[in-house]
Design brief:
Helix content: 25-40%
Strand order of the largest sheet: 6-7-8-3-9-10
Number of strands: 10
CATH architecture of the largest domain: 3-Layer(aba) Sandwich
Order of helices and strands: EEEHEEHEHHHEHEHEEHH
Structural class: alpha/beta
Number of domains: 2
Distance between the termini: 40 Å
Length: about 250
Amino acid sequence: MLATEGLAKHFGGVRAVHGVDLTVEENEILGLIGPNGSGKSTMVNLITGVFPPTAGRVAFRDRDITGWPAHRVLAAGIGRTFQNIRLFRGLTVWQNLWVARTPEQGRGSGRFGDWLAIDRGRMHAIEATLDFCRLLDKKDELARNLAFGEQRRLELARSLAAEPALLLLDEPAAGMNAAEIEDLRGRLVALKARGKTVVLIEHHMELVMGVADRVAVLNFGEKICEGPPARVQDDERVREAYLGTRRSG
């Protein structure tokens, strides 16, 4: 579904991402992990068009999307969340999802009946998404008035409102308590069951290892390991990256 080839982003002399080859298969959960500053969020920004790459290529469903602007990447079917919650805090929960629908999803012939059908379908889709994220009873609340965990769920709901085929979640468990993380785990499993493909960028290892089909590890902007969760956990290079241990010899 998604492939990066030799992807790189250099900020002056800093190689935030350098030569990363990464694939994401249809209907899998790929965990993307690494220490702070390893290049995980930069990878997301390169894929979603926030940053242009210094080198390399991004392909989505056999189309080269390298350097596409963020709105065009979203319209192609790639959605995302952010490390730091970026809601429209002065809008209601419902309005946050309404404005998240892409322009292509609101197009019609111009006839009143067509626009009415589009709006009804749009309302039904938003209602279903809010129900999935356990926010339907909060639909008229301002986003700023939600509890932290609810804001995290709204961030997820808003990313789903555009109906992406591929969803990149950038540290969605950050700041959550144990119950909220368990709820997130259930949402991720349910998304896969619904046919979604997810890239999970996360520091919470128990969550990643519990839901991911594969895990890729970045360190200093380079991919150092990739494979099934159990194998990645046992990899000496991964332990060295996280714990600072030295390999013998």
